[in-house]
Amino acid sequence: MMIQQNVQEAAEFVRARGFDGRFDAAFVLGTGLGPLVDELSDAVSLPYAEIPHFPRSGVSGHAGKLVAGMLEGKRVLLFEGRAHYYETADAGAMRIPVALVKELGIPVLVATNAAGSVRAEIRPGSLVAISDHLNLSGANPLLRDHSEGRFVSLTGAYDEGLRKTLRSAATKTGIDLPEGIYAWLSGPSFETPAEIRMIQILGADLVGMSTVPEVILARYYGLRVSAISVVTNLAAGIEGASPSHQETKDTAAEASEKFKRLIRSFVAELSHV
């Protein structure tokens, strides 16, 4: 009950500051992907720190702002940065923002992230549509939720219709967009080479420290979900790789133009979903 009250208070606050009316989609922007906000027209923004009950993002590469505006003739909501499990020790740190998407009547949530590749053929700078995930963190954002809704099915969590739209958008913009399985580990330390070998055996293609809690929460709230990884590095031990956060930020920035083209094309096609 307290969560819903907090969500309503956050919604009332942002609606009174220009975030009212209809939206077509919401996006959570991962490390280095914030420049998408520069593509919006008629934009309004609010720092997370001003919004009641919102989490704080303290990671470089995450601005911590809520932004609304027009993109390809559609109205979109952008979360410029996220709060991570490794910052908060709370897998449900993004619950209020995700619930806000539902409260504002937005049907689609697209989560984006910077990820490591555990397959040498998926090179840094690639974009990958997530088709499924492995939760290897031992955490879940619905822990301590006592409603019947906590037993949410994650079969088809990554909406096939939205993935089809992503594939079409990629084709129209000449972008290669393979699909892959994303493994979520808690961070903030990067994985060991042994852990990466384990993840390969388990069948994942990507590894990262975010997104999965947001997807679980989005399905809990009945949203349609899609997710995109920008591959920023080869995972530990692959071709001698030793990842760093600076590498993650630098490669995400380099890939941001391609990412923006894909998202613009995707948003333009959303009416066909």
Describe the structure.
Helix 4 crosses helix 7 (245-269). The mean pLDDT is 93. This protein is α/β, with parallel strands linked by helices and 273 residues long. Helices cover 31% and strands 24% of the residues. The protein has a single domain (2-272), classed as Nucleoside phosphorylase domain (Rossmann fold). A 5-stranded mixed β-barrel has the order 5-8-7-6-9.
At the fourth level of CATH, the homologous superfamily is Nucleoside phosphorylase domain
The biggest sheet, with number of strands, parallel, antiparallel or mixed sense and barrel status, is: 5 strands, mixed, barrel
Q: Are there runs of 5+ residues with pLDDT below 50, and where?
A: none
Number of helices: 7
What's the alpha carbon Rg, rounded to whole Å? 17 Å
Number of strands: 9
Q: Do you know the CATH topology? A: Rossmann fold
Oligomerization status of the protein chains:
single chain
Give, in spatial order, the strands making up the sheet with the most strands. Answer: 5-8-7-6-9
